[in-house]
Known about the structure:
- By secondary structure, the protein is α+β, with helices and mostly antiparallel strands.
- It has a single domain, classed as Beta Barrel (L,D-transpeptidase catalytic domain-like).
- It is built from eight helices and eight strands, in the order H-H-H-E-E-E-E-E-H-E-H-E-H-E-H-H.
- The protein has an eight-stranded mixed beta sheet.
- Helix 2 (about 25-35) crosses helix 3.
Amino acid sequence: MNRFLRHVIVTMPLLAAGFAPAHALTASLADALGKLAPQANARVIELALAATDCAVAQGQAPAERLAVIDYSLPSTEPRLWVFDLVSRKLLFHELVAHGRNTGENFARKFSNRADSRESSLGLFRTRGTYTGRNGYSLRMDGLEPGVNDRALERALVIHGASYVSAATASKQGRIGRSWGCPAVRDAVARPLIDALKGGQYVFSFYPDPNWMNTSPYLKCRAVRATTAGGPAP
């Protein structure tokens, strides 16, 4: 599948879902981040920023860093971006694994179920680090009920893995797969985890219409309208 066709497949559901443009500040930041990451789908970055903005509007603390994972891209392409939102810098652009039962080179299925060995979508908030069987790892809280809120229970963490490499991708047509964790290259795991630990945001995207139409973090205009007692501007 060529890059243009992938762009059309990703963009059409986003437009069909009827998402309104982000407010001016988020739009300005999205434009800046888009220039830092020209390979990324600009609308996915906008949605990631809108989701974090919505989380803050609902009582979450602001964060300095944001990781965006675009699971509509194949595993053989770098599809994880880590941004510093304060200095407006791109810190990492990396390969990232999806779950064994999520798909082969392309992700297809996502789950919140224990033992599903599938990745989860939506907005996450990072916690602290620990060293376990996969080495230095970063715990995450899933913020979306029914979508990713069992992340801690499922031990969905960011960690390094030897099977995440360009060499593996070249040899077998995809990188290795995890049990649902967004695993990254061993060489970059520690600095990437240190950049994201302690309350930063991770946004995992795939154009799944059910999630996109029901996520509380992608429907913030409706939330604000209800809170204000009137229509959103």
